[in-house]
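Justification of computing resources. Each target in the renewal requires a structure prediction run like the one illustrated here; the chain below, 1067 residues long, is used simply to show the kind of job we budget for.
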Amino acid sequence: MPRRNDIHKILIIGSGPIVIGQACEFDYSGTQACKALRKLGYQIVLVNSNPATIMTDPGMADATYIEPLTVDSIAEIIEKERPDALLPNLGGQTGLNLSSELARNGVLEKFGVRIIGVELDAIERGENRIIFKETMTRLGIDMPRSAPAFSVEEAERIVAELGYPVVIRPAYTLGGTGGGLVYNREELQTIVGRGIAASLAHHVLVEESVLGWEELELEVVRDAKNQMITVCFIENVDPMGIHTGDSYCTAPMLTIAPELQKRLQDYSYKIVEAINVIGGTNIQFAHNPENGRVVIIEINPRTSRSSALASKATGFPIAFVSAMLAAGLTLDEIPYWKEGTLDKYKPSGDYVVVKFARWAFEKFRGAEDKLGTQMRAVGEVMSIGKNYKEAFQKSIRSLEIKRYGLGFAKDFNQKSLPELLSLLKNPTSERQFVLYEALRKGADIDELFNRTRIKKWFLQQMKELVELEELILKHKGAALPDDLLIQAKKDGFADRYLAQILDISEDEIHNRRTALGIQEGWEPIPVSGVENASYYYSTYNAPDKTPSNKKRKIMILGGGPNRIGQGIEFDYCCVHCAFALRDEGIETIMVNCNPETVSTDYDTSDKLYFEPLTVEDVLSIYNKEKPEGVVCQFGGQTPLNIAEELAAAGVRILGTSPETINIAEDRDLFNKMMQKLGIPQPDSGMAISVEEALAIAERIGYPIIVRPSFVLGGRGMEIIHDDNMLREYVTAAAAVWADRPILIDQFLEDALESETDAISDGVDVFIPAIMEHVELAGIHSGDSACVIPPVSIPEKHIKTICEYTRKIALEMKVVGLMNIQFAIANDTVYILEANPRASRTVPLVSKVCNISMARIATQLIIGKKLADLGLKDRKIQHFGVKESVFPFNMFPEVDPVLGPEMRSTGEVLGMADSFGLAYFKSQKAAQQTLPLNGTALITIADRDKENLFKIASEYNRLGFKILATRGTHEALKQNNIPSEPILKMHEGRPNIADAIKNGEIHLVINTPAGKQSEFDDSYIRKTAIKHRIPYITTIAGALAAARGIEAYRRGAAKPKSIQEYHKDISN
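Resulting C-alpha cells:
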C-alpha cells in the first residue's frame, strides 16, 4: 500500500516531562516519528511541554507547541492548526490518554481529526482493564484471575474470593503508578485508594498474584495488511513482582525453550490482530515453569520503554517503522538488510544484550530501597557482548556508580553468609551485588533461587564469574598468568576492576594485555528499515570486523544513563554537536550506553559505538578510529570525570581543557582566580577532615552550605546549621567520597539566585540570556523555577552579571559552553560556581531565545570565531518559565520538600507574553494547576513570618478564603486579614489532613517547619500530593503563583507555536 494521500497534516502528542515510568525513550520515539513522516511529505504539528528534548526543537516539526499537555490546550491547538490526523501511540501513556480524552470529549469529531496507527476502541481494549479481560477471554488467552473494583469495599469483596497476596493495577497509568502488591487488608485499603485516584478511568483491577513467575516480553509490529513480525524477545531475569522498568533483563531470551517462545508469539499475534494496532505493541506475559501455565499480564498498544530497548537491541527502529505504517505503508514496502523487505524480518543477532536499571534512592532521605510493582528507576543502561557474562559485566561499569565489577560493593564482602541471605529477603537495587558476595561465601544456588526466584542458569553464570575472580585474587599484587588474564577479559572483567582487586595500577593491566594482543574487536549491528546503516559493540571474544577510514572525524562522549542531575538535556547537546559537525563535513563518532536517547539513534552520528563511558572503552575506540579529538563538554559530568585520564593517555580533548575544568572544581584555585578578577564570592574553604571542616565553619559562621567536589545535581549538598550537623555530614561523606575534598561555603540567606549560559571562543564571549530563579538561595538550580528574561533583577546587577561572566570565561580560556551561577544579596552580586561545560539549561535558553547554543559551541570548538558568526544581542518579547517536575508520588514515604540537593526528574516550560501567564502555564504543565478561586491553606514556618502578611494579603485580594493554623490565624487577625483557624494533625479533628482529603482545600502554601520544630509537618505536603492538591513550599513560589492566577484571570492567550514566538524576537 502506498502512503496515504487523504491526510496532509498530522498532530503528534509528546509525552511531556521526564518522570519515573516515562522518560526520554519517548523523546527518541517521537523524534523518529517526526523524521519518518516529514520524509514522506507530511506536515507535522507537535505538542509537548518538555523543553529539554530534541523533539521540541523548532526544526523537528512544521509547528511546535511547547504547551501544557491538557485536553483544553490541545483542543485549542487543533482548532488553530486543523490537522487531518492524530498519531497517538508515540507519546507514551500521556499521548494515549489524551487522545482518548479528546475523542471522548468530541474534539476530534468536531474538527474532523482521524486517529491513525491505533483505533480508539483499540486503546480501550488495551488500556481499560475490564474490556481487556473480555477480549482475552474471547481469544482464549489465560489471565490471572481478577475483577475490577471501583471502590475499596468492592476490592475487599474480590480479595475474599482470590485470597492474599493480590496485585492492584490501576487503568490508564504509567510505571505502575498507584499500584502495588498487597498482603493484608490495611495495605489493600491504602493501595486501592491510591490506585483509583491515579486512574483516568477511576478503577483498578484486583488480580491474583503471580509473584515469582518468569516475566517475558515480546515486541510485535503489525501493518494494515495484517502482516506481523516479532522484533524482539525479552527475558526479565528478575521474576514477576518487580516492575519491568526496574527489572534486569536480557535479549534474546536465554533460558526459554523455543516451543514456549513460539507459543508466546502466537498469543501475541492473536492479540494485536484482535486489538487492531498498526505499528508496535509491547506484550507482557508471566510463565509458571512448574506447571507451564502462561498468563498475559498487559499490553501497551504504543511504543514503550521496552520498545526503545528492543529497537536498540536489534537494530530495528520500531517508532520509525510504526510511523511509516501509520501513514499507510506496509512491511513488504520497507527495506530489510537481510532478506529484502521487513515482512521477512526475524531477530537474528549472535550477541547478548543486557539492560540494567539506574536508581536514585540516595536522593530521597527516608525512601526505602525496595523494588516492587511500582517503578522506581530513573534511568537505565544497555550493554552488548558476545556472551552473557561479557554483556552483564559491561552493564555494571556502564551504570556510573563507581563500580567496575560485581564484587566488593559497599560492605557486602565483610558480611557473613546469613547476613547476606537476610539482605535477599526483599528485592532491592543492590540484589545482584549481594548475590555475588553470597556466592563467594559458598551460598547454594538452590537456596538463592528459592529466595529470589532468579533462574538457576543466571545464578550459575554468576557463580562461574565468582570462581574465576577467586582464582584471580590468588595473584594479588602480582601479574596475572596469561591464560587467566585472557579468560578474565573474555568474561567481561574490566581493566579497572582487575587493577582494584589485584591492588596494581590499571596501566599495568592495560599494558600486559596489549602486549599479549588482547584487544577489543568490534562487531556491527545492521539497522532494519533503512539502507546501509549499522552501529557497533565491542567484544574480547571475536576479531575486529569494523572498518575504519582516514576521513576527518571527531568523537563525542555521551552522558550515560539518565539520572537525577544529569538527564536528557545533555543528550540534547550531544545530538546538536553531531548535527553541527556533520554540517561542517566532519565525520562523527558517538559513544554512549543509554538505549532511551536520540544520541544512540542509528542516524544521529556517522558511527555509533554502544559502549560504556570508561577510560578503557573510550581509549580502545579512540585508538582504533584515530579521530582529530574528543568532545567532552556536552555529556555532563560523565565525560568530564574521565577527561583528565584520557588526556594523560594522549587523547586530544577539544574545546575547554581538562586543566580549566579542574580549576572550576578546585575551590582553592577558583578562589584565587576570583580574587584576581575582583569578583565577590561567599567566604569558603575546602576540607578533607572533620577538624578542618569545623575550623572553616568557625571562621565563616553558620549557616553554611557543603558539598563534595566533582559531582552533578547537587549530589550530597546540604545546608548545615551547627557543629553536630557538620560532624555527621563529614563522617558520612567520607564513606562515599573518600577521595574528594568537601567544599564549604557561607550560605547567603534570602539571596536572589541567577544564572547565565555563555558561549566563548577564548577571545570573545556571547551571553544569550540571564535567568532569574523564582525560589531564593538554598534550592538547587535544577529544582528551582526560573524565568527568562529576568523580572526583578535591577539593570545594574544585570550589567554586573554580564561583566563577571565575560571576565571568568576569558580568564579560564573557555572554548565552547559555560554556565555560571550568581547570588544577589545586600545589593551585591556574588559568584557561586562556574561550570565550563554544557549545562542543564542549554535547551531551555536555546528554545526561549531562538539560539542553538550547542551548535554554535561546536563551531567554536572546531576553530570558528564568534566574530565570524554574526551573533547579536536581541530583545526577547515573551517570557519563558521553567518549572521542575518531581517523583514524590513514587516515594510517598518521603517529605516533598526542596533543598540544595537536586531531586527533580524533569522539567516543563510555560511560554507567554507576560511572566504571570507563563508561570501559570508552567504549573499547569507540571500537573500543579493553580486554582482560580476557592480555599487556600497558609501555614508558614516561624522564620518566614515576616512574609506572611504579604502572601495572605495577595490571596485575600484575589478573593481566596484563607485557612490558617492557630498562630498564623492570630497574627492575620491582628493585621485585619480575614482567615479561619484550622487544627494541625496533633491538635485534634477535623484537621488539615481531613480538610485536604475532603476536597475543602484547593491550594496548600506550607513552608516547612524544619528540624527545629517540635512537630513534623510533612504530613501536610504528603497528603496534598496524594490527593493531587497543588502545594507550594516557598514564599517566592507563593507570590509567583498569585501573579499567575491574576494573569490567567485577566485572560489566557491563545496558544502560539515556538516558531511564532521566535519571529517576534527583535535585534
